[in-house]
Amino acid sequence: MTENHLPKNFRQLLGHTLGPDFRKEVVETLLTDKEAKPAAHEALGTIASLRKMRPQTIGTLGRPERINLFLTSLGQPAMENAAMQALQVWFLRKGRPLMIELLDAWKISHTDGELSDDIELPALSADQVRTATLEALKTHSKSSVIAYLGYNHLAPSAESWEESFGTVLAELLGAPITE
Predict the structure, then answer these.
(1) pTM surpassing 0.85?
(2) Are 148 and 95 in contact (CB under 8 A)?
(3) I need a surface site. Which of 27, 43, 132, 151 has the fewest CB within 10 A?
(4) pLDDT computed for residue 8 by the predictor
(5) Where in the chain are the domains?
(6) Percent of the chain scored above 70 by pLDDT?
(7) What value does the CA radius of gyration of the chain take, rounded to a whole number of Å?
């Protein structure tokens, strides 16, 4: 898979790159997390605006219908922030073990998978990312690992991360995604 096939934004990462069951889990996590209520309301408001629906109408829909509306709206640029927030909420609620494992493997200081604002991040080579990724794949779903690599490729925490994460992401995307 070439770099041209890498997701170019969070909407593509969530909407097309990840496995269908994982996509639904990420969106459901956003829509049901009590602390993420403002982000969920904002996302549903954006969907209502895009679909020319009243927000109250979306509120009357069942969870599967709201998840489906979210996922089918990801083609719209207005959904970029909602896609990014959905991934962030999933990482914080369900992806901590993965984040902790990878950050520990890269010897990056963190608190329960979260980085401090003033941390100096090391440059990571593709080999370092690859080695930790292959180890993580032994205990985490391929979609969750791809989500983390994709997130760090699209919003790199350090200048050198985009290329190293993109390289390993391209390698993983060359094989079929299985949950």
Answers:
(1) yes
(2) yes
(3) 132
(4) 92
(5) 1-93, 95-179
(6) 95
(7) 16
